[in-house]
Task: inverse folding
């Protein structure tokens, strides 16, 4: 696990089609960004798990926006409006760090392995009918990251 | 794609890959492929040492990679303490097919003390995706029953009035179902000595042994009977592949319609923006 061949055949076929359906533009043109050394870098977490605070506008299927998760959030405030039934929620229900490793990142920062932790982390909705529609959200997130001194983002899918 | 968009905006990225075939197509700048099940990018709950090692391995790519890189993480997620075939530790009666509502309410009643115990122990619950609070679970159950018994998918069933539902119909039903699933899942891991079920074991238990599974299957049939192809993809959000016995759970696009065009056409309807 997990290669597509390990999934249920219908699920695997759906996943195969998911990438075959889209024409991904100019991926090779993405510029290489060299961040500062890890011990001097501030890191933000970005998850596609559809997490947000209770009371935030929930994600809608096909949502092109993002939600902000404050670094000091009480995990009891989080809710997950992800539409897919094809991933394991049980470990997330037990421990949010298995999806959003906020506490682990702080431990690495305390040990001096990373320079710092972003005051905000970021959440988008995976399982999108069009993954290309996140470009505007990503640009806005990047601006907010730069403004708060973030050097690098750690992406976490579900 | 997010990795490309963020890099183009000047933020370096690294990330976890759960499906290597997708990552090989997307070609992100840096990715750590792991063998973990979908939904568990850092492997396993409540194992800080393992999670930290995964995180450290992914972050190190920010220093070591000089060109687009997919590195393989060498370890599988540790298994639970009592590996073997999982069985629900709460004794539930055989669902009474002739009275689905009573059968479902009986299950919920029997699971409630265990759900409350997990909630107390964890200090949190994941119920609330639909907008209903855990205290409003009766309305969640009424919602599922009404849709299973033919209330339709255009409006919130009158029997489920009360909660501040935060989605529009018909996609609201999908989150109502997930709240009830979360309640079941949180309940069955609370029993002393109970091991955590795998994702597949949970699906199998719910769909093959519980009144909830019968209600969800009945909703699947109501979706088919509604006759609107735009509704059918929602069945794929409620009934996983392998547990819908009457064909492909997602359905298929109408003859001659491109699958991407079809899902784009269905999306505004599913989120309640189009009748």
Result:
């Amino acid at each position: 696990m997990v290669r597509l061949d390990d999934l249920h055949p219908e699920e695997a076929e759906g996943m195969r089609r998911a990438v075959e359906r889209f024409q991904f533009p100019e991926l090779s043109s993405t510029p290489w960004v060299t961040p500062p050394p890890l011990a001097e870098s501030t890191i933000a977490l970005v998850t596609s798990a559809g997490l947000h605070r209770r009371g935030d506008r929930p994600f809608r299927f096909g949502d092109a926006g993002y939600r902000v998760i404050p670094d000091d959030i009480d995990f009891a405030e989080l809710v997950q409006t992800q539409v897919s039934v094809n991933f394991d929620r049980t470990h997330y229900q037990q421990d949010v760090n298995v999806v959003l490793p906020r506490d682990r990142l702080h431990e690495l920062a305390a040990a001096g392995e990373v320079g710092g932790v972003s005051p905000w982390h970021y959440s988008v909705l995976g399982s999108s009918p069009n993954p290309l529609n996140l470009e505007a959200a990503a640009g806005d997130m990047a601006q907010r990251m730069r403004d708060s001194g973030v050097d690098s983002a750690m992406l976490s899918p579900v | 794609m997010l990795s490309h968009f963020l890099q183009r905006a000047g933020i370096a990225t690294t990330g976890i890959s759960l499906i290597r075939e997708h990552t090989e197509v997307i070609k992100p700048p840096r990715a750590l492929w792991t063998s973990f099940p979908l939904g568990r990018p850092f492997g396993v709950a409540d194992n800080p040492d393992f999670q930290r090692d995964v995180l450290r391995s992914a972050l190190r790519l920010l220093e070591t990679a000089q060109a687009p890189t997919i590195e393989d993480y060498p370890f599988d997620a540790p298994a639970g303490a009592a590996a073997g075939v999982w069985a629900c530790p709460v004794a539930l009666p055989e669902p009474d097919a002739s009275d689905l509502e009573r059968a479902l309410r009986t299950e919920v009643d029997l699971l409630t003390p265990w759900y409350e115990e997990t909630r107390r122990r964890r200090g949190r619950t994941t119920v609330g995706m639909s907008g209903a609070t855990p205290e409003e679970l009766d309305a969640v159950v009424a919602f599922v029953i009404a849709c299973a018994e033919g209330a339709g998918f255009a409006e919130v069933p009158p029997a489920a009035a009360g909660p501040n539902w935060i989605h529009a119909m018909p996609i609201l039903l999908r989150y109502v179902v997930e709240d009830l699933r979360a309640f079941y899942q949180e309940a069955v891991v609370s029993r002393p000595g109970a091991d955590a079920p795998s994702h597949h074991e949970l699906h199998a238990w719910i769909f093959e042994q519980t009144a909830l599974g019968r209600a969800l299957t009945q909703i699947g049939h109501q979706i088919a009977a509604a006759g609107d192809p735009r509704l059918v993809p929602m069945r794929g959000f409620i009934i996983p592949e392998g547990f819908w016995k009457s064909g492909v759970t997602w359905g298929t696009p109408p003859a001659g319609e491109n699958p991407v065009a079809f899902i784009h056409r269905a999306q505004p309807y599913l989120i309640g923006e189009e009748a």
Remarks:
- Chain A has a mean pLDDT of 90.
- Strands of chain A lie at 42-47, 51-53, 67-70, 78-80, 116-117, 120-123, 152-156.
- The first helix of chain A runs from residue 9 to 20.
- Residues 31-156 of chain A form one domain.
